[in-house]
Amino acid sequence: MARMSSSSCVWLPVLVLQCCFQLSASLSYLSAYVKLRYSDRWTNETVASICECGVFGAHSLQKSASGGIVLPNADPLACSMNITFTASHEPWIALIKKGNCSYSQKILAAWRNGASAVVIYNIDGTGNDTNIMSHPDADDAVAIMIGNIQGTEITNLIKSGTDVYMAIAVGKSYSLWSAAKWAYALSFTFIGITAITLFYFAFLFFKRMYRNQQLRMQLREIKRVAESAIAQLEVRTLRRGDPEVDSEETSCAICTDSFQHNEKVTVLPCRHLYHKKCIEPWLLEHPTCPICKYNILKSKMDEESSEQHSSSSSLDVSFCPPVVMTVTSTHQHHTSDVQTSENHVYCGMDVQTQHIYENPAFEEEPQTLEHPNINNQITTNGEV
Fold first, then answer.
1. Phi, psi at residue 346, to the nearest 5°?
2. DSSP state for residue 380 in the 8-state scheme
3. 174, containing H or E segment
4. β pairing state of 273-275 and 46-56
5. Residue 36, φ and ψ in degrees, nearest 5
6. DSSP readout, 47-85?
7. Alpha helix locations (H) across 232-295?
8. Does residue 47 sit within a domain?
9. Is residue 125 part of a domain?
10. Helical axes 179-231 vs 276-285, angle rounded to 10°
11. pTM surpassing 0.90?
12. Number of neighbouring beta carbons within 10 Å of residue 334
């Protein structure tokens, strides 16, 4: 997964740069020189004009064309079925208004009727603004767009009976952005992609470091708990006469050797027996019994929780009654309670103290420690 993410990050800048270059190509267009010539009906003078006011379509043939301008019959938008054109001279150029149907449909309708080129003028209210036409289904024709004002003037001249001649020539290539703006945009895009890639790799690096650190901390904690649990396991030395010594039925499940005299063995809480030198490395790696899968850490945690509970309950003791020592005389006919000069009160303290060993195998018989205050003896008639 890490390799896949790294390879995707490497290819990401390349793909973005490719998209930027494709976008730059789509944002460029080719202009067209439009030359008009017609005869004024009132003065009989020839009027000629030329301007770089046309734009070649995105899928148009980029070459020159000329001819008389012809309007579509019946439908100025040329979107109707079986649209026709009436041309009196060859070659001729179709003049169609934008709207209602696609550019491809308009261009194909004029191309099927024999037009040498197609001129589409913009819709009303757009002035002399032009758009870049997309006509992928009609890429074998010369097609340009001109502004609405110019197209409307030519249409009115033709409708008034004036023959208008048009010549189309290839103009210059332009970009929708200036070269300086495009260079700045491309530079900032590249810097941004590089920064995002670096931040992503840095995020992956620190995330992996954090996970490794957490894993090491968990392993250290588990090892510490395992060592503490191992230290409290019962360890004893085998003596002669023990049923495990030289027994064919009992052997160490780790090394598969039988138990011998004077060998130190560890007894797990599940009562399974192993060599001490065999089971301790095993428990550090796998804190479970090799035979029954008993988890020694579970018992360790249970002991710690019980110790915390007992310590908290001992702190809750706030009162204990005084202990009054009484002595009964055997020479009197009745029993009299004789109290000492002062009452000894023992609160929360046992008379006997038992040594607690970390390993239960080394525990000895409890010894009784007498409190010094108990040594006070009361003698009545020579008896204690």
1. -115, 115
2. B
3. strand 164-175
4. unpaired
5. -115, 145
6. EEEEEEEEEE-TTS--S-EEEEEEPBSS-TT--STT--B
7. 276-285
8. yes
9. yes
10. 150
11. no
12. 6
**Residue 145 domain-assigned?**
yes
Closest CA to 54 of 147, 140, 124, 178: 147
| Cβ neighbours of residue 119 closer than 8 Å, sequence gap 6 or more | 54, 69, 93, 94, 95, 96, 143, 144, 145, 146, 151, 166, 168
Residue 378 CA from chain centroid, whole number? 82
263 and 238 Cβ atoms separated by less than 8 Å: yes
Q: Are 265 and 244 in contact (CB under 8 A)?
A: yes
Containing domain of residue 42, as a range?
A: 28-175
Q: What is each CA distance from 9 to 50, 162, 203, 375, in whole angstroms?
A: 53, 64, 13, 85
Omega of the bond leading into 91 within 30 degrees of 0 (cis)? yes
End-to-end CA distance of the chain: 86
Q: How many other C-beta atoms lie within 10 A of the C-beta of residue 242? A: 15
Domain count, the chain: 1
Instruction: Show pLDDT as tens, one digit a residue, over the chain (384 residues).
Output: 444 444 555 555 555 555 555 555 556 788 999 999 998 878 888 899 999 999 999 888 889 999 999 999 888 898 888 888 988 888 999 999 998 899 999 999 888 888 999 999 999 988 888 888 888 888 888 999 999 999 999 999 999 888 899 999 998 888 765 555 666 777 888 899 999 999 999 999 999 999 999 999 988 888 888 888 888 888 988 888 888 887 777 888 888 888 888 889 998 888 898 999 999 888 888 888 998 988 888 766 666 666 666 665 554 444 444 433 333 333 434 433 433 333 443 343 333 333 333 344 434 433 333 334 434 443 334 443
Residue 57 falls within a domain, yes or no? yes
C-alpha distance from residue 337 to each of 324, 326, 342, 346 (Å):
10, 6, 14, 20
Instruction: Give phi and psi for 14, each to the nearest 5.
Output: -65, -45
User: CATH number of the domain that 60 lies in?
Assistant: 3.50.30.30
DSSP letter for each residue of 104-164: HHHHHHHHHTT-SEEEEEPPTTSTT-------TT--SS-EEEE-HHHHHHHHHHHHTT--E
Q: What b-and-e string marks burial along 282-318, b requiring 16 or more CB atoms within 10 Å of the CB? A: bbeeebbbbeeebebeebbeeeeeeeeeeeeeeeeee
Own/partner pairs, 328-332, CB within 8 angstroms, 24+ separation: 329/380, 329/381, 329/383, 330/381, 330/383, 331/381
